[in-house]
Structure to design on (231 residues):
């Protein structure tokens, strides 16, 4: 199947700093990527839809100034958590829609963020 | 609006016995339904999907799911559990009303397999 890669898989940062997570579609071009967040023992919640060449669409309740999303190319979307706080510690996972595979969604491996 | 409910947060079976992970859905449209599996420290992997074709869908690793409109269910089954099946399983519906068809996840069912 198609491959979506996320980096880093684990990151620890200090409160107040910013951290960037990358999501790459390795063998296909994705005009649309999605960013999810998973709290412990809860399901994945969609944060935003990332569209190549345009602004991301954020879900209700997600702070766009805190979670900056950039989809500068057809194979890369980035999520930057700005001024991170301990409550931002979570599992973040991206997915990409494969345009030539019935719009099947492929997920990255996820990124564990710990803010200390 | 679409939603999915996974009825069990944790299911434990013995190796070699059948697996049943339950999922009920709610949808205003003819739904597209999926089952994903998440192994520790790994990304989500698509097991199978239903998109209004055959109601019995066969997936990878011996899993299958049956779409039952009358019961609004899409339960995941496997005849014989293997140790490697231990993971978290998510029932998912495609959200046509949201932003460009994103996915709505159930809360997940953790499957444990005992030797």
């Amino acid at each position: 199947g198609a491959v979506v890669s996320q980096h880093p898989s684990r990151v620890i940062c200090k409160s107040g700093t910013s951290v960037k997570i990358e999501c790459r579609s390795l063998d296909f071009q994705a005009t649309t990527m999605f960013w999810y967040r998973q709290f412990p023992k809860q399901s994945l919640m969609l944060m935003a839809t990332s569209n190549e060449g345009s602004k991301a669409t954020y879900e209700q309740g997600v702070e766009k100034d805190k979670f900056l999303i950039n989809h500068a190319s057809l194979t890369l979307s980035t999520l930057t958590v700005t001024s991170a706080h301990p409550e931002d510690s979570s599992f973040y996972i991206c997915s990409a829609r494969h345009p030539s595979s019935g719009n099947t969604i492929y997920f990255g491996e996820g990124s564990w963020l710990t803010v200390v | 609006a679409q939603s999915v409910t996974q009825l069990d947060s944790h299911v434990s079976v013995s190796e070699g016995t059948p697996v049943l992970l339950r999922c009920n859905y709610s949808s205003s449209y003819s739904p597209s339904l999926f089952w994903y599996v998440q192994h520790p420290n790994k990304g989500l992997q698509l097991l199978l999907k239903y998109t209004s074709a055959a109601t019995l869908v066969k997936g990878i690793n011996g899993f299958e799911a049956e779409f039952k409109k009358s019961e609004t269910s899409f339960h995941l089954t496997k005849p014989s559990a293997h140790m490697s099946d231990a993971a978290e399983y998510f029932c998912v519906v495609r959200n046509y009303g949201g932003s460009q068809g994103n996915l709505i996840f159930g809360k997940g069912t953790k499957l444990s397999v005992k030797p």
